[in-house]
Design goal:
This protein has a single domain, classed as outer membrane lipoprotein receptor (LolB), chain A (Clam). It has 5 helices and 13 strands. About 20% of the residues are buried.
């Protein structure tokens, strides 16, 4: 009788929806990276350039659309240029120093950025994604559970970065690709949740990139929409491209 009870219990567990397909963190990360082109391919990537438009503002009528170009170079280098009010601004991080030129704020010479802004830029510079080689980066990843997000069944991963910041990634249960991210960040001394919805995935040189990102801050509707139009990989980007120039020799924005 006891043997029969154990067998019945095992059979019952086997038909519980989702249980038979339970995934470990390691399996989920591996499936995610494989779906996006493979971890080795991402680690081999050294530079990239993305161009597109950013739309700021909650409503279409009052939205402001700005063309942008962002360039990356390992390790931890990033340069963002965007045009606003007819003027091109630059924000960059060379691996040590974060700096900016913001002419629409009257700042036409390069200035070092605040610590929290530099931290944000450094995270953005990791363009291969937080899950690639995450242990070597000092991050930890936990499987929080499974839940439905806007009608899509998802695995929820908690990523604690080496610097203490926490991200939540929602992986589509069928394709294992993240379609939503939530980040807990300190903004001007207050904790804020930044939510990003990812979509329009396209393959570029064998790697899968989201070409649409809708961001909201502290809840509510999307307040920033990013549309990526072109992605170039393996471009020639000298280190000087990211370095803060002397004020009298500030580099002019790149020609389009």
């Amino acid at each position: 009788m006891k043997t029969r009870f154990i067998l019945c219990s095992i059979l019952a567990l086997a038909v519980i929806p989702g249980l038979a397909a339970a995934q470990t963190v390691e399996e989920l990360v591996a499936s995610n990276l494989e779906a996006k082109g493979g971890e080795e391919a991402w680690m081999a990537l050294t530079t990239g350039r993305m161009s597109g438009t950013m739309r700021m503002g909650g409503g279409a009528a009052g939205a402001m659309e700005m063309p942008f170009t962002v360039e990356f170079k390992k390790p931890h280098k990033i340069r963002l240029e965007f045009t606003m009010q007819g003027m091109t601004a630059i924000q960059a991080f060379d691996g040590e120093t974060g700096w900016a030129i913001l002419p629409f704020l009257g700042k036409t010479e390069p200035e070092e950025m605040a610590e929290d802004q530099v931290k944000q830029l450094k995270n953005q510079a990791d363009f291969e994604g937080v899950l690639v080689n995450y242990e070597e980066k000092g991050h930890t990843v936990e499987l929080v559970g499974q839940e439905e997000v806007d009608g899509t069944p998802a695995y929820k991963l908690k990523v604690t970065r080496a610097d203490g910041d926490v991200d939540y990634l929602y992986l589509d249960e069928e394709y294992f690709v993240e379609f939503k991210m939530e980040a807990q960040r300190e903004v001007q001394g207050s904790e804020m949740t930044i939510a990003t919805v990812l979509g329009d995935y396209k393959e570029v040189d064998g790697l899968l990139f989201a070409h649409s990102m809708e961001m909201s801050f502290g809840g509510g509707d999307a307040q920033q929409v990013i549309t990526i139009e072109t992605i170039e990989l393996g471009v020639d980007l000298p280190d000087e491209r990211f370095a803060m120039p002397e004020k009298a020799e500030a580099e002019a924005p790149a020609a389009e």
